[in-house]
Specification:
3-stranded antiparallel beta sheet, PqqD_sf, 3 helices
Length: 101
Amino acid sequence: MTLDTLVVRRTDALYDEADGEITVMKLEDGSFYRLNGVATQILRAMSEPRRVAEIRDHLLRCYEVDVATCEAQLLALLDQMAAEHLIDRRDETAAPRADGQ
């Protein structure tokens, strides 16, 4: 994952927001996740495809954190979310697939 990667939350999960936190239920296996305030902001931003750099810039405006720390922690969290199948990602620098997509 890079700053140019497009990320979006998955459509095969249920999202419920209460008290500033999002709870996610994955439909494929019924597992639940409760996200804290920062992770909730990140997931909220991914209701539409967003570049990681856009999310980083939003976090930098909201929190007093240096760029390097913000990027490192954001990329680590997004990698974890992708591994748990909470988000989809697409690397815009990747070569086009044989089917043209």
